[in-house]
Amino acid sequence: MKQHGIFKNLAGETVFNSxxxxxxxxxxxxxxxxxxxxxxxxxxxxxxxxxxxxxxTIDVLIATLVFCFARKNxxxxxxxxxxxxxxxxxxxxxxxxxxxxxFNFSYASSYLTHELFEGLEPSLIYLLxxxxxxxxxxxGIRPLSRTAEVFFPIIxxxxxxxxxxxxTKTDFARVLPVFSKAPAQLAKVFPRYGLWLADMLPFAFxxxxxxxLPYLTIGITGTWLIVNLVALLGVAIYGNALKTVTDLxxxxxxxxxxxxxxGRTEWTNLLAVLxxxxxxxxxxxxxxxxxxxxxxxxxxxIKIAFPLAILLVVLIVPSAQTVTDFATxxxxxxxxxxxxxxxxxxxxxxARQRSKLKNVARRLEDEYLPNRPTEDAIDSRRSxxxxxxxxxxxxxxxx
Amino acid sequence: MTKKLHxxxxxxxxxxxxxxxxxxxxxxYGRTVKSPSLTKTQIVLGAGxxxxxETREFExxxxxxxxxxxxxxxxxxxxxxxxxxxxxxxAEALDGISRKIGLNISLAHCNVLxxxxxxxxxxxxxxxxxxxxxxxxxxxxVIVASAISPKELLSKRIGTTVSSALFLxxxxxNQEGDDGMIRTTVKDFxxxxxxxxxxxxxxxxxxxxxxxQPQNAEGEIKDNFELILNRALVTDGDKHCVIDEKRSEILSxxxxxxxxxxxxxxSPRGESVEFKVLSESVSSNxxxxxxxxxxxxxxxxxxxxxxDADRVLTGADELIIExxxxxxxxxxxxxxxxxxxxxxxxxxxxxxxxxxxESVGRDLEEDxxxxxxxxxxxxxxxxxxx
Lengths: 399, 386
What we know:
The complex is a heterodimer of chains A (399) and B (386). In chain A, helix 3 (48-71) packs antiparallel against helix 9 (215-238), helix 5 packs antiparallel against helix 14 and helix 6 (122-139) packs across helix 12 (266-296). The model of chain A is unreliable at 1-7, 371-375, 379-384 and 394-399 (pLDDT under 50). Chain A contains 16 helices and four strands. In chain A, the strands form two sheets. Chain A has a two-stranded antiparallel ribbon with strand order 1-2. A two-stranded parallel sheet of chain A has the order 3-4. Chain A has helices spanning 17-30, 36-44, 48-71, 74-80, 84-116, 122-139, 141-164, 183-189, 215-238, 248-253, 259-262, 266-296, 300-316, 320-327, 330-356, 358-366; strands spanning 2-3, 6-7, 14-16, 207-209. Chain A has one domain: Hydantoin permease, CATH 1.10.4160. Chain B has two domains: 37-256, no CATH class; 261-386, GMP Synthetase, Chain A, domain 3 (2-Layer Sandwich), CATH 3.30.300. The longest helix of chain B has 28 residues, at 318-345. Helices cover 32% and strands 33% of the residues of chain B. In chain B, strand 2 (57-68) and strand 3 (77-87) form a beta hairpin. Chain B is an alpha/beta fold and 386 residues long. In chain B, the strands form three sheets. In chain B, strands 1, 2, 3, 4, 5, 6, 7, 8, 11 and 12 form a ten-stranded mixed β-sheet that branches. Chain B has a four-stranded mixed β-sheet with strand order 13-14-15-16. In chain B, strands 9-10 form a two-stranded antiparallel ribbon. Chain B has ten helices and 16 strands. Classes of the chains: A mainly alpha (399), B alpha/beta (386). At the A-B interface, helix 6 and helix 7 of A face helix 1, helix 4, helix 7 and helix 10 of B.
C-alpha cells in the first residue's frame, strides 16, 4: 500500500519519524515545564535558566544517542544475538522508567487533587488519570504515537498562542549573574535533578521509518527551543519568585492579554498539560513494558507492577512532596547516572555486537532505507526482525 | 514473492479510541467533580488584609457583588456587600466570611488587593502563596496601600462606580503611569520582595469626601468619597515611606513598562506646558556598582499656557523643544532625589541592588545601597502634531 509517496506497511513497533517527532515534543515539554523550573529555581536562584538550558542540552544528547541506536536497529540486533548485557541494561531501563512514571504521576496527581479538583476524592482522580495512561501504554507505540499526532496540533497551537499574547512585566536581566553560588557548589547539586532526563529512552525499543523531511531533527530542536524559551520567560517574569510557581506552563497562560476581555485563560494550557502528562506517562509505561520484554522475555510483570506501584505510592505516601524530596535528594544522583549510562551502555553493546556480526547488522540497518520497494520489505505482520532476510537483494540499495 | 499487506485495524481506529476515552473521561469528570456552582459562590471583586498586631490576627475584608432580582420586577439590582472576619490565618478569616454569607468564597475575579502597612511587613511569600494557590487569586491582581485600613477603604462609597475595588481596578489598568499611578501586581510584588532589593512601590490611596454629593430624583446621595491616587508608598518589610506627587510621577514611569498620562513643566517665569506621554522605554543596567537608567519618553504637545507667543505653538517650535529639555533635567533631578530618599530610608524601591547584583555577581554584599551610584538619563522626544 503506497500513500503520500511512502509505504505504510509498518511493523509492530515501528512509527514514522513525524509521529516520533510529535511524541518528542509532548513528552519533552510535559514534565520539564511543570514542577522542574520551580524546584531548580529554589536551589539555583539566578542560575536557574542556565542550569535548565544545560539539563535540556544533556537530554538532547541522550535523545540523540537513543535515536542513533534506534536508527541502527540496535534493538533488533541485540535481541537477535540474545545479548546478556542488553538484557541486563533492559532490566535497569525497566526500573528507571517505572520510577520516572511513579515520580511524574505522583506530581501530576498531587497538582490535580490540591490545586484543581480540590474537594474531590483523590482516589477517583488517580483512577481516572491512570486509566488512559495504562490503556495507551499497553496498546503499544503505534496507537500512542497516533494519539500524539492527533493532539499535537491543538497543544502546539495553544502553547504558541499563549506565548504570542503574553503580556506582563519582564526583566530578562534576571538570568544574571550566571553563577548565583560558587560553580563547584552548583555542580554538586546539579545531578540531583536527573529525574527529568532521558524522557526519550523508550525510543530505543522503537523502529523509526523516515518520511522525506527530517522531522526528528525538527522535533528535537523545536522542543529544546520552546522548553528553554518558556524557562527563560519564567525567570524573566518571576525572578526568584519562580520557586513559588507550581506549574509554569499553566501560570504563563494567565498572562495572556486576551484574559482582560475573555476572562482567565489558564485553562487553555491546563488542558494541554493534562493531555501531555497522560501521553508522557503512557510513553514511560510503554518503554517499561518494552524493556521488560527484552529483559525477561515477557512484559506481564511490569504490566501489572507499573500501575500497581503508582497507585500504592500515591495512596500510601502521605504527600507528593515526600516523593519529590526523595527523587531530588541523594536518589537523584542515581537517577542522573542511570539516565546517562543506559543509552551509553546500549550503544556500546551494540557496537560490540556489530563488530562481531557485521553482515547481520548491515541488513538490519537496511530496514531504514527510505522508499524501499514493498516486495523487499521485512514481513510487517510479525515484526520479525530477521525473518525473510534471505529474500533481500544481496547488495545495498542506493538512496 | 509479493506479500499481502495488512494495516492493523487497531491502528485505523486508535484515533477514535483515544477520542472516545477522552470523551468518556470528561463525562465521568463532569458527573463526579463537585464543582462549586455560581449560585453557591460569592464572587469577590476586592479583598483587603490587615494584620492586627495586638491580637496577632488577620482581619480580612471582602467586597463582593450580588446581582438579584425581585419577583415581579424586570430589572435586577446590583448590590456591593462588604464582609469582615478575623482569624489566626488568612484562610481562617476567609472561612469566617464564607460562614457569614453562607456561600463559598472565590478570589478568581478579585483584581485588587488592599494591604495595610502591618500586612506589608509580613513574609510576602507566606501571605500570597495560599491566596494564589488555594483561593485562585489572579497573579495580575493589583496591590494597593492606603492611609486608612483596608476595611474602611472597601466600605467607602465611590461616586462614579460605587465599588472602590472596581474603580481602582479600572483606573490602575487603564491609566498606569498617569499622575503617579503605579501598578504593582501580586506577581511583581513577590518578584521584587525575593530579589536583592526586597523593596516595592505601591499606589497609595487617600480618601476624601466629595465636595458636592451626587443628586438623584429623591435628593442628595450622601457619603460619597473620591479616591486620590497620585502618591506612592514604598516599602521594605516594616520600613515604609510615602512619596510625594511630583516624584511619584517619574517613579511610576521608571517602574512601569507601559505608562500613559501627562507630564507638566512650569518654568520659573510661570510658563506652563503639558505633554501627553505617547510611549516610553526604560532600560537600566549596571557597571559594577554604578547603575545607569535610561528613560526615553515620546510625548505629544497637549497644552501651552502663559507663553508670550502670537501664534499657535506646535511640537516643532524651538520654545517647546527647549521646555522639553528643561523637563528632562527636572525629571532627572527628581530621580536623583528619589535615590537620596532611598538611601536615607534604606528602602531600595528603585531596584538598584538587584541591578548591581546582576553586574557584580554573588560577591555583592547584602544591604549595599549606600555604596551604589545612580546615573539617570531622561530623553524626551516631542512628536510634531498638526
